[in-house]
Predict the structure.
Amino acid sequence: MKFKDVAVNRDERYALGIEEESGKYYVSIPVSNGMVDYEEYYEIDKATFDQYRADLGSARDFVERCRRRQEDDKLIVKPGRNRGTAV
């Protein structure tokens, strides 16, 4: 998988992008499990991607739900047993 960020909200710590091999759109957030820092990628549709890209702040509510693990059904890569927590 090749995740390519196209917009980053540095203050709120999330990014929008496209997974180049599948063409899936995503929102990513940084997570850490104490051993490694990595990102989790949550799939969104093109209309949502376009909305968030036009107004990056409009993704805030979705990002907060991701951090609370309320959008896990949208994870592109399912986490392992030592899942990190949002940072």
User: Anything to note?
Assistant: The chain has a mean pLDDT of 95. Residues 3-86 form one domain. The first strand starts at residue 3 and ends at 9. The chain is about 20% helix and 35% strand.
